[in-house]
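Tip: read the tokens left to right.
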């Protein structure tokens, strides 16, 4: 995914729709943003089924229902000033956690969906690859209100992402990937 603006972020909301039949003790990555030297922002399903995101270091983990074959609307929010981080699954908000207060997500990286780049432009581990569907990926450079995220899940037409807008973001395809247009 090619961003519409630099990912020099002090807050964000990242949303996507996900479906997978991968289960069991396998970690898979949903979203990866890596600069030359750092994994800046990664969203994972951990070995134990928890969902997590990492900002250039240790992650914040959330115990939530397992992802499955039915489409799940997933959003992650984070604000640097307060450190507040939360996760939304199908419009339901998790508890808030304090995470990486004062951090900035640095610009100059690459975004890859469904694969963990172990280096800036490659070196992938096939055991961490996502198998399933990831679509409707949108990102904003602010924390959206709970009601806006709940509206997106409910199918309301909300403002599209200003960092990534799935409807207009340029995608570069590698590997066995199919891009399918869907009506939401």
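Filled-in amino acids:
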């Amino acid at each position: 995914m090619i961003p519409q603006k630099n990912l020099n972020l002090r807050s964000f909301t990242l949303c996507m729709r996900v479906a997978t039949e991968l289960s069991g003790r396998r970690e898979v990555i949903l979203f990866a943003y890596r600069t030359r030297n750092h994994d800046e922002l990664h969203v994972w399903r951990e070995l134990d089924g928890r969902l997590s995101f990492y900002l250039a270091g240790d992650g914040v983990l959330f115990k939530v229902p397992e992802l499955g074959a039915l489409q799940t609307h997933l959003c992650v929010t984070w604000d640097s000033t307060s450190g507040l981080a939360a996760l939304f699954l199908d419009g339901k908000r998790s508890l808030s956690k304090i995470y990486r207060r004062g951090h900035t997500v640095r610009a100059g990286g690459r975004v890859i969906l469904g694969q963990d780049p172990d280096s800036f432009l490659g070196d992938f581990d096939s055991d961490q690859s996502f198998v399933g569907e990831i679509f409707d990926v949108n990102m904003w450079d602010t924390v959206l209100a709970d009601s806006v995220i709940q509206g997106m899940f409910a199918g309301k037409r909300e403002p599209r992402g200003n960092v990534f807008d799935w409807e207009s973001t340029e995608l570069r395809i590698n590997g066995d990937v199919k891009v399918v247009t869907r009506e939401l």
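The chain has a mean pLDDT of 87. The two ends are 20 Å apart (CA to CA).
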